[in-house]
């Protein structure tokens, strides 16, 4: 292999960790391979004072990276799967999904051990509607407000006393060696994760066959089935960008069966729908769609419509 692989990446520590991870994996598989990081600042990194739901959502973090690949200034982009929009632009596609890190959410606080341990009226920071639904359902007395910025910024706001607790993805904290900040890893029953949370995916040009074969050894089939089911559910619910939807798949019975749980709720926690489905892992995508249908039949579309009107 004489070509150099250029990885388009944002400059946040988490994005750089992910790019470095893929670089190290490729170097381990292909000694002597040349890999370059092409760093860029995206719209999502620039606009930090507005809730993501109001400015067009997570797509803002990937557009610049995708343009770089389409204009042949980069070859691959490494994404957190939970931030990857459902549809890819013409000419680009997902080549690989890497093994999943812990998919849970983490409760972080300097004074309290868990949500249940927080005093009446305590202040929780999160900018995820999905986390807000589950926090308010459990503890309607808590005040929840928007918390944006990268992981370090968010921890800084907690430490400065702006919040009594914040919730972040466990995976991001583990990758940044900040696991010690976690007071409680919230089980899926307490906070159902976002589709794709904890998994890293690699996007590239669909016509770059040489590169696609080269990336193959980084692919993890089991993670891919789980994320496929989760994303199929999100897509059928027209997930849009920033939505109060949780979904989480695990494999059972020697990895032959897939158990998918889904949740849709009003951000104030006053109405929360949950359902689940189990079936053969080969039907991952169909299971995701089926679970979405079940949730829609139970009123998920009303809830989502309400959220979209509220948030404009
Ligand atoms: N929304 C930003 C984002 N995207 C992916 C992760 C964590 C890593 C992952 O899920 O793979 C985070 C941080 C967080 O939610 O705390």
List the helices and strands and how they pair.
Blueprint: E1 4-10, H1 13-29, E2 34-40, H2 43-46, H3 52-55, H4 63-70, E3 76-80, E4 92-97, E5 105-108, E6 123-125, H5 129-138, E7 143-145, H6 151-159, E8 165-169, H7 170-175, E9 184-186, E10 200-205, H8 209-215, H9 221-236, E11 245-252, E12 257-265, E13 272-280, H10 284-297, H11 300-311
Parallel strand pairs: 1-2, 1-3, 6-7, 6-8
Antiparallel strand pairs: 3-10, 4-10, 5-8, 5-9, 11-12, 12-13
Helix pairs in contact: 9-10
Bound molecules: the ligand NCc1[nH]cc(CCC(=O)O)c1CC(=O)O.
Residues 80, 82-83, 151, 168-169, 171-172, 197-198 line the site of the ligand NCc1[nH]cc(CCC(=O)O)c1CC(=O)O.
- Report the total helices: 11
The CATH class of the largest domain, by name, is Alpha Beta
* Averaged pLDDT: 93
Structural class by sheet pairing and helices: alpha/beta
Radius of gyration: 19 Å
Placed side by side, the strands forming the largest sheet appear as 2-1-3-10-4
The SSE order reads: EHEHHHEEEEHEHEHEEHHEEEHH
Strand fraction: 15-25%
Question: Separation of termini?
Answer: 49 Å
Q: CATH homologous superfamily of the largest domain - what is it?
A: Periplasmic binding protein-like II
The CATH architecture designation of the largest domain is 3-Layer(aba) Sandwich
Q: Could you give the count of β-strands?
A: 13
CATH topology of the largest domain: D-Maltodextrin-Binding Protein, domain 2
